[in-house]
Design brief:
Chain lengths: ~550, ~130
């Protein structure tokens, strides 16, 4: 090592200095895109030695603590990542048609997007739902809608993820009821319910109930699925949305893991053990454009989770410590200017997902800066994942970037910074307190503003936005939700209300209310309400009667 | 800015993504405007009421849900009803490019779709100030 260090210095003073004399560097600093880590001109064993890198301690082997290199020993050689997309619009049949198309064109995973009214428990004919029904997700008013949407050959699905957080208890009740009815076992595929309400308060806005009640509901879902559904995942901790809202890499990991600890603590209060609960936690991170930084971030996230679950929560089971990650080749970096350029962006980001050792990967579509995706665009994105899998060779060995001096340096740096973020949240009394105080929201707003100022000044380049702009582009043909969708859904809802047993609905809602008031797990009473075809609005109103509604404090964000 | 332009920055409807609205609000504040951010889940009624109460010059509508053709025309109608259609309405977010001319015809002063620079928005508001 001394010899390497000595020769490195010789190179710096000699060859490098000489070369820079005639070819000075083009920028003052070459920083990573989100974390702004200043990259050195070159990394060598000397750099890793400086930060105390130790192969066995920092990396070990794939499938072993601390899981830096991946959650399984042979990763994509034995099992490809689940190729997935976020998808949904219209009513059940509309969504179903698109989902069949996706499953026939190279995907094995669906992340079900619900429309905004469903996300916050509003019926399609609620005055607040006007204009929003089926527009950016599938409308689910009753169990019947979900049944129509999920009329699929379940053999084609490896990964099904329901994007519901405020309404996670209702969707959990509906989907478990549905699959029980269909005779589907929890071994057939991985079902995940997002159930991640803290990020709604902070950056997504689809919350309903106040934080305390929301955490109780999240714990109801976790407890129910841990006790009753082996294999299925009752929570997906969302770093990705924080990333889309401007979070740096260390903030994405640090805030997300802090949120995870809060949910875990809620579940432990129910008498469950860490080794019963932690293996059921999945993560959702994003991958933006700086490939090496994003790969390092995901590896760091796995490492930090493993260590903290072991040291802070005393986990004994290795499965508690292995953070299974869904990585999303984020849509936030895409532009509506020259949208075909986004295919390049999605490929780079998709590659980052795979090189980071993601267990599941989402690649969105090139038109998503403008609208929800068209059928052509989703097909291209499915092809991107398949091209990476079958043409690029990156799956041939586990963690191919492992050992890269640069990537290991970035991994350790992000790990250290993420731990600082966790310590800060700890000092504030944990994630719920940090969210209620507005701290996380302000940090995100600060980061987002700083990012935009860098774009405005040209410090951060976006092709088509501040470099290589094209005027008078021919507009892309985008996907538009058919105008009759809302009216049709409202008519269906009215029919559903008429054709059910009103007494049974009333009784089931009474039981939901009683359970809500009594601290009894809500999922079983919600299953009865679902079977009675109670509407999502009726259930929401029953629960707001007990829990109240949350109104965000908008102060201090500007 | 020659006159301190008062802007209501609003999130209308169920869309809860506030990143764009907050970034634009800060840029306008730094450019000298007086900004009031409404918070999420506003209705056309609450936005117009705030704008009138706050003596706003501009209502900024940030909307990513695709429901802009439901909410923005209602805001314009309410302003007309209340005799407040001197207040300029500007909008941003995921606005279908085919709807842009329609909205302008209805009376929206300017639309700033995704990819717009902050400079374009602050210049626009600064020009409004000059006109006063």
């Amino acid at each position: 090592m001394d010899e390497i260090e000595a020769q490195k210095q010789e190179w710096e003073q000699g060859e490098l200095k000489k070369y820079l004399g005639s070819a000075p560097e083009l920028k003052e600093e070459f920083g990573t895109r989100r974390e702004r880590i200043p990259a050195k001109v070159m990394y060598s064993p000397a750099e890793l030695n400086q930060i105390g890198f130790n192969y066995l301690k920092d990396l070990s082997f794939p499938g072993l603590y601390p899981f830096t290199r991946g959650t399984s020993p042979s990763m994509y050689r034995s099992k490809l990542w689940s190729m997935s997309q976020v998808t949904g619009f219209g009513s059940g049949e509309d969504a179903n048609k698109r989902w069949r198309y996706l499953l026939d064109h190279g995907l094995s995973g669906l992340l079900i997007e619900l429309d905004l009214p469903t996300q916050v428990g509003l019926d399609s004919d609620d005055p607040m739902s006007t204009g929003e029904v089926g527009r950016l997700g599938v409308a689910v008013d009753t169990l019947d809608d979900l049944e129509r949407a999920l009329d699929l050959d379940m053999d084609k699905i490896k990964y099904l993820y329901i994007i519901a957080s405020a309404m996670a208890p209702v969707l959990t009740a509906m989907v478990t009821t549905l699959f029980e009815k269909k005779g589907i076992s929890t071994n057939d595929f991985v079902l995940t319910v997002q159930n991640e309400i803290l990020k709604e308060f902070v950056c997504r806005g689809s919350y309903v109930f106040p934080p305390g009640a929301s955490m109780r509901l999240a714990a109801d879902v976790i407890e129910f699925m841990v006790r009753q559904q082996p294999n299925w995942k009752p929570i997906s901790i969302c770093g990705a949305h924080l990333g889309s809202s401007g979070a740096s890499c260390s903030q994405e990991v640090g805030f997300a893991l802090s949120f995870a600890f809060s949910y875990l603590e809620s579940a432990l209060k129910r008498g469950l053990t860490v080794d019963e609960v932690a293996p059921r936690f999945d993560f959702l991170f994003c991958a933006h454009m700086d490939l090496f930084e994003e790969v390092a971030k995901i590896r760091a996230a796995r490492k930090v989770w493993a260590r903290m679950i072991k040291e802070r929560f005393g986990a004994k089971d290795e499965r508690s410590m292995a953070a299974r990650c869904l990585v999303d080749a984020s849509g936030i970096t895409l532009t509506s200017q020259q949208p075909l350029n986004n295919i390049a962006r999605l490929t780079i980001q998709g590659l980052a997902c795979v090189l980071s050792g993601a267990d599941y990967v989402v690649v969105p579509s090139y038109d998503e800066a403008m609208a929800i995706p068209s059928q052509d665009a989703v097909r291209v994105s499915a092809a991107i994942q398949n091209i990476i899998a079958f043409e690029s060779g990156v799956r041939n060995t586990v963690d191919p970037l492992g050992g890269s001096y640069y990537v290991e340096y970035l991994t350790k740096t992000i790990e250290d910074e993420a731990l600082k973020v966790i310590t800060k949240i700890d000092s504030m009394g944990g994630a719920v307190a940090a969210v209620e105080s507005g701290y996380v929201q302000r940090e995100l707003a600060d980061s987002a503003y700083r990012w935009q100022l860098d774009v405005e000044s040209g410090k951060t380049t976006i092709i088509g936005i501040n470099k290589l702009k094209v005027e008078d582009e021919k507009p892309l043909e985008i996907f538009r939700v058919e105008p009759g969708v809302e009216q049709r859904q409202i008519e269906r809802l009215k029919k559903a209300r008429q054709s059910r047993d009103a007494g049974r609905v009333k009784e089931s809602l009474r039981n939901v209310k009683a359970a809500a008031q009594a601290d009894v797990n809500l999922i079983a009473p919600l299953q009865e309400a679902a079977k009675a075809y109670a509407t999502i609005g009726e259930i929401r109103n029953t629960l707001t009667d007990v829990f109240g509604e949350y109104h965000e404090k908008a102060a201090g964000l500007v | 800015m020659s006159k301190k332009i008062r802007v209501i920055m609003s999130k209308v409807g169920l869309d809860g993504h506030s990143r764009g609205a907050l970034v634009v609000a800060r840029a306008l504040r730094d450019a000298g405007a007086e900004i009031i951010y409404t918070g999420l889940h506003q209705t056309p009624e609450t936005v117009v009421a705030s704008a009138i109460q706050e003596d706003a010059d501009v209502i900024g509508v940030s909307i990513l849900s695709g429901a802009h053709m439901t909410y923005i025309p209602r805001i314009l109608d309410l302003l007309k009803q209340k005799g407040a259609n001197g207040i300029k309405v500007i909008a941003g977010g995921c606005i279908d490019y085919e709807d842009i001319p329609k909205l302008k015809e209805m009376g929206v002063a300017e639309i700033f779709p995704t990819g717009t620079t902050l400079k374009a928005i602050t210049d626009y508001v600064a020009n409004l100030a000059k006109a006063y």
